[in-house]
Amino acid sequence: MKPYLKEHAWSIIEEGFNKTNHEISESVFSIGNGHMGQRANFEETYSGSSLQGSYMAGVYYPDKTRVGWWKNGYPEYFAKVLNATNWIGLNIVINGEPLDLHTATVKNFKRELNMKEGYLYRTFIATLSNGNELKVEATRFVSFAMKEIGAIEYLITPLNFDGTAEISSYLDGDIINSDANYDEKFWTGITQTAEGNRAEVTVKTKKLDFVYTAMKETHVYLDSKAITPRSVNTREKYAEVVFDAPLKEGVTTAIYKYAANVTNRDHQTDALTTVATDRLNAAVALGFAELKDAQKQAWAKKWQDSDIVIEGDVSAQQGIRFNIFQMNQTYTGEDARLNIGPKGFTGEKYGGSTYWDTEAYCLPFYLATADQEIPRNLLVYRHNHLEKAKENAAKLGFTKGALYPMVTMNGEESHNEWEITFEEIHRNGAIAYAIYNYVNYTGDQAYIGERGIEVLVEIARFWEERVHFVPRKGVYMMHGVTGPNEYENNVNNNWYTNRIASWTLEYTLEALAHLKASDPDRYQTWINQLNLTTDETTKWKEIIEKIYYPTVEDLGVFEQADNFLDKEIMTVDQLDDKHLPLNQNWSWDRILRSCFIKQADVLQGMYFLNHKYDLATIKRNFDFYEPMTVHESSLSPCVHAILACQLGYKEKAYEMYLRTARLDLDNYNNDTEDGCHITSMAGTWMSVVEGFGGMKVIDNQLYLNPFIPGQWTSFSFKIVFRGARLMIRVTQDNVEVTNETNVDVTVNIHNEAYPLTANSTTSVAQ
Amino acid sequence: MKPYLKEHAWSIIEEGFNKTNHEISESVFSIGNGHMGQRANFEETYSGSSLQGSYMAGVYYPDKTRVGWWKNGYPEYFAKVLNATNWIGLNIVINGEPLDLHTATVKNFKRELNMKEGYLYRTFIATLSNGNELKVEATRFVSFAMKEIGAIEYLITPLNFDGTAEISSYLDGDIINSDANYDEKFWTGITQTAEGNRAEVTVKTKKLDFVYTAMKETHVYLDSKAITPRSVNTREKYAEVVFDAPLKEGVTTAIYKYAANVTNRDHQTDALTTVATDRLNAAVALGFAELKDAQKQAWAKKWQDSDIVIEGDVSAQQGIRFNIFQMNQTYTGEDARLNIGPKGFTGEKYGGSTYWDTEAYCLPFYLATADQEIPRNLLVYRHNHLEKAKENAAKLGFTKGALYPMVTMNGEESHNEWEITFEEIHRNGAIAYAIYNYVNYTGDQAYIGERGIEVLVEIARFWEERVHFVPRKGVYMMHGVTGPNEYENNVNNNWYTNRIASWTLEYTLEALAHLKASDPDRYQTWINQLNLTTDETTKWKEIIEKIYYPTVEDLGVFEQADNFLDKEIMTVDQLDDKHLPLNQNWSWDRILRSCFIKQADVLQGMYFLNHKYDLATIKRNFDFYEPMTVHESSLSPCVHAILACQLGYKEKAYEMYLRTARLDLDNYNNDTEDGCHITSMAGTWMSVVEGFGGMKVIDNQLYLNPFIPGQWTSFSFKIVFRGARLMIRVTQDNVEVTNETNVDVTVNIHNEAYPLTANSTTSVAQ
User: Fold this and answer.
1) Chain B within 8 Å of A468 (Cβ-Cβ)?
2) Is the ipTM of this complex over 0.90?
3) Tens-digit pLDDT profile for residues A269-324
4) Domains and CATH numbers, chain B
5) Which residue intervals of B351-426 are DSSP H helices?
6) Which residues of B touch A399 (CB under 8 A)?
7) Measured between CB atoms, which of B472, B479, B592 is closest to A490?
8) Which residues form the Glycoside hydrolase family 65 N-terminal domain (chains A, B) (predicted)?
C-alpha cells in the first residue's frame, strides 16, 4: 500500500476520499483524552467498510476463552476493551436522499488531525444521486478540560439547492466487539430516553456490571436561528432526536452535538443520569468554541512538556509528533486503575490493556515528559494488582511469590498461549525494573518504602522458586521459558530471563538494605508484614552467585538460550527477500528453529542493564545478534537504535529509527486498520531521546551524549528532570541545553558536567 | 467411579439401570463391523443424558479450524468423524404414555454385549406412570456377513395390561456432531420418503459431497400376525412408518427393523436408492434369525484367529477379549481407504481416523491375527496419501520429501497445535518402521518394490532436509521437535526422533540395495521415477554417520533430549499422590519443565529397534526412565510391559499390563463416555503376545520367550505366521505350541528351535 497522507509538521492530512484507505484513516485519525476515545468514523451514515469504535477507558468485558486445545492453567476469560455506545452519530437525509459518502460523488475531501490543538476536522463536497451538491465541515474532539465530554460541530452548506435536511442525532448502544470470540453482544440495554434536544442511553455489560450512560444534546441552527426538534424516538439501547432543518443554497446549517459519557467506574450507578446531566449542562453552557479553545490550551501544555522538533525533515517531524500525540491521548496518568493498551483508543484488537510494553517501553516517555505522579501511577497500578499476581503464581503451582500476567485488565491473566502465558515470565522482571527505573530517574526513593518493596519481594520470591538447582553442574538454571524474542519458545536458560531474574534479586536486596538504613521502622514493618526470612535472602544471594548464564566463550558473547549456537547460524542479509517478513512466509516451526530473532533479547538486557556492561561487551553482542534480528516486533528497533547510538553506529541507528517512526502513518505492517501501535510509539520517542539524545540518568546525574543524523538540520526535545524542564537542541555543530524553569540542575554533556542555572542556556560543541 | 460391569469370560454385562453410567455404557457396548458402527443408544426414546452416535466409516467432514492464536502452517480444517443418520430409532407410546427409561420405573435391567457372537442384547421391565408394566428384550447387530446391514429385534410383552402401542420406526438424519467447532450441522437433506413398511432418508454433507442413504423396513407382529402400518410421515431429513400395534397381556409383540446403510464412497450417487433396495431386500429375505446366525459364524472365524484365553482370571479374560473384539469391530482391512480411529465407532471425539497409533500400536495385532492383505492395506493407505504428505512438507517450507500428517482422514493434516502438528514429526519414522515391521513379519519383501520404496525414499528425503549440520561440532542435529513424550515440547535432539530418522535412512538404503539385487529392473524404474541421485544417498550415509545422539556418558543412558539431565531429576514415587495424574493437577508449564514422562520415548526406540541394543543397554535405560514415567498416555504401559518382560521384571510387567487391560471397562480415565480407547487396546494385546508371550520375528524366524504372571493358571494366544496358524498356551510349567494348519513351521522357544509340523503340538518346560 502506498502512503497517502500529506506531510505536515503539526497535522495529519488526508486529501481526496479513497474508500480502501478509510479503515486505516479511522485508526490514524482517532481522538482520545485518556478517559475515552473514538475512531475517526464519520458522523453521518457510511454504508461502506468501517470499524465503528468508541471506547471508555477501563470498561472491559471477560469474553470466554477460545482455544483449539485446552492446557491446564489457561484463564477462562480474556478481558477485552469494550466497544461502546456510538455517541457521534448523525443520520442526515437531504431532500429524501441519505448523505452517505459510500454512495455519493465526493470531491474536495480533506481529513485533518490537528495535533497541535487536539481535534479532528473533515470537509468534503458531496453530490447526491438527486443532484443536490453540498459542502460539509465537521470538527470534533474529546475534551481534555472536561474529560467526560465530546463535542461535534457539523456544518452543512447547500451549493446548488434549497430544501430540507432530516437530521437524526442519535446514541446507539447496540454495539458488538469486532473481536468477540463467540459473536456475542456484551451490552444489555437499561434505559433509553429522549426529550426536547436531549437523549440518553444507559447500557450495562452482561458481566461485571459496568454501567455506561451516554447523554447528548443537539442544537441545529440556520443562520443563527435555532431549529426545534421535530420528534424523538427510542428503542432498546437507542435514542434519537430528529430535526427537519431548512436548507438554503449558500447558507450554512450548523449542528452542534455535545455528549457526556459517564460510567459507574467513576460515579455511583444510580447517580449516572444526574452526573451526566451536570456535565452536559456545563459543556452546553460553555459552547463549542470555548470548549475548543480549552482543548487548544490543554494541548499547548502537553506540547510544552513533551514536544520534539526535527528541523530539515518534515516527514520525521510529523512522525514523531504523531507518536507523542497518541501517547498523550492514550494515557494521562490521573487514574491508577488505567494503563496503556496496545491499540489505545484506536481499535479493539488484542484486548487487555496492559502488557510488559508499559514498563519496558512506555514508562520512559512519561518519566521524562510528565509530572512524577503520572509514571508513579503506572507503578501503583501493578502494586494494586499484587494480590492477583500472587493468585496467578499459586494457580500455576508456586507456593509463594507473584507472577504478573502477560495481558491484563484487572490483574487477572487474560492470555492463552502456553508458550507465552506460562513461559514468557520475563515480564515479571520488567515490572521490577520499572521500579528501579522510576526511582533512578525521579530520585523518589520513598516509593520503595511506600509500595515498591512489596512488589519487589514477591517477584523475588517467584524467581527463587522458578529456578532450580542442578547438582550435577552446581548451578541454578531456569527451564521452559520464552524470552523477549518470541521466535524461540520454551527454551532453557534464556540469558535475558536468567539475567533479569538475578538482577531482580540483586535490586531487591539493595532496596531492602537501603530501606533498613534510611527508615528502619518502615523496614521492620515490611519484614513483619511480608514475613521475610533470612533463609530467603540467603537463598537469593546463593542464586545470584550460582545462576547459570549461557555464554559462548570463543565469541565472547552471551548465548541467547541453551543450544542457540547449535542452530544454523545465518544473518538476515543472507536471506532472499522473498522470505521476509518471516511471519508471513515461514511456517511457525521453521521460524522457531531458525536463528532469526523477532526482537531484542540479549540486547534488551544490554539496554536495561546498560551500566553493568562495558562497551566492548555490548559491541560484541550487538555485532553478533543484530544481523540475525528481523525486527518483526515493532518494539525491537528502538532498543537497537539506542545501542547503535551508544556504539557510534550512526547509519544503523538511523535505519532502526526509521523502521517505527512512521509505522502507522505509512501503514508499514498493513494492519493499521485494526488500530495504531500505541506502545511502540513510545519506543520511537526513546530512539530520539535516549538514542540520538543519548539521555541517561546514572547516580542521580543526567547524561546527554547526543548525535544528530546527517539527514537532519537539528532536533530538539523536552524533558523534565528533578523539577527542571529542559529543552535540548542538537544541531550538526552544537548541543544547546536550555533550562526553562527556576530550578538549578547539572547536566553532563558528552560526559562533562555543566551546571545549568534557572532559565539559562548552555551550548557545547558536538 | 466404581466399576459396575459384571465379570464374564465372553460377555460384557451391566445389571440394573444407573443413569449416571449410561453414557459410559453407550460407548462400551458399541457395535461395529468395519463399515459402520453404532453406540449403544436405546432404540426407544430416552430423554436423559445420552450421546446418540451412528458412524459410517470414511464419511467425514472438514470442520473449520478453531484456535486461540493462529500460527502459519495450520490447516484450515479439521476432518471429523461424522455422526450420521440415526437408523435404530423406535418411538414407542404405550396406551398414550411414551416408553422412556429416564421417566419410567425400571427393574431387571440387563445389557449384554455378546462378544462371542457379536450382538448387543438388552432387557428390562418398565413400569410407566399410567401403571402399565411391560417387559422389553432388544437385540441388535451390524452384520459382518452383509456389511451395509443393521438389524434389530425388539420384543414387547405387556405384563399387566392390554392395549395399544403406537410404534414409530424412524430414520433421523438431522444430526449434529457433539464436537462441532461452531455448532454447525454438517448434513443437508436430499430426499426422505416413506411408503408401506419402508422409509428412506438421503443426506449429503455440506462439504465434500458425501451422500448417505439409509433405508429401512419394519415389521411388527403380534403372535406371528403381521400388523399393517397405520401411516407414514416425512419431514426434512426424517422419515417414519407408524404402527398401531395391539398389546395383549402376556403375549409378545415383536418388532423387526432392518436397515441398509449405503454411501457414495462405495456406490454411484445416483444408484444409492437402488443399491439400498437390493441390500434391504436381501436382508429381509434372510430374516433376523438367519442374519444373526451368519453373524455368529463370522465372529467364530475372528475368534479362531485372534482369541486370547486367560485361565484363572475372569477379569483379565474379559478385558483382553473386549480389546480384541473392539479391534475387530473397528477395522477389518478390506478397504485401504479406511484406517483405525482413536475412538473407532464408539464416539466422535478427536476427529480424524489416523494417528501414528496405527503404525506403532495397531499394526502388530493385524499382522499376527489376520490375513496378510489386512495389515498390508494399512501400508497401502499411507502409500495412497504420499502425494498429500509431499504437499504437507512443501507447505511447511521443505523443498522435497514427505511429512505425513499427525491426524488425518484423507491424507491432509487435521491437527492444529504447533508443538504437535509441526514438531511431533517422529510419526514419519513410525510410518517407515511399519513397512519394515510388515516385511519382517510376513516376509513379503515384494511390497518394497511394489509400493514401499517410494514411501521410504520420500520420508528419507524429509529427514535429510530436517536435520542440519553444526560445523562447530561436526554433527547433524535436529532442532524443534516433540518426541513421543508429549510432556516435553519443542526440544532439540530428541534421542528417539534422531534415532528413528537415522534408522529410516539406514533401512531405506538397505531396501534399495535389496531391491537392486533382487529386481534390478524394478529398482531402475523407481530410481528414474523418484529421480533419486547418488548425491542424496551419499548425504544419507553422512547423516547416519554424523548424527548426534544425546547421551549421558556417566550413567550409560541415552538422553531423552538436549538438557534433559539439567532438569530436576525425580522419580514418580517421590511425588505425593495428590499430584497425580499430572495432567489434571499441574499447569502445563510445570509438566513441561518437570522430568516426568507421559509415555515411552527413549524406551519406544528400545522397543522398535530392540534387535539393535544389548540387554544391558536396555536395562540401564529402562531403570533410568521407567521410574520417571507417569504413563498418562494409554499407549505407554504396553511398551514398558514388553521391555519389562524382556528384562525379567515380572511384577513391573504385570503392573503395566493391568494399567490398560480394562481401561474402558473400568473407565479408568473417567472419559469412556466420549468413546473407547481403541488404539490402546492393541497395545494391551501387544503386552500379552509380545510381552508375556515374548513373541518376536528376527531374520524370518519366530521367537517365543514366554513367561506367565503368577496370578494366572494359563494363557494362550493365536497367531498367524507365514501361512501357519499357531496356538501358544503357556502354563506355570509349560509352553505348548500347536500348529493348527497344514503348513510346517519352525518356532524358537526360549531361543531353541523346534520344528513344528502340520497339525502337531510341541511342549517345552517353562
Assistant:
1) yes
2) yes
3) 999 999 999 999 999 999 999 999 999 999 999 999 999 999 999 999 999 999 99
4) 5-305 (2.70.98.40), 307-351+632-766 (2.60.420.10)
5) 357, 363-369, 373-384, 386-395, 418-421
6) none
7) B592
8) 13-265
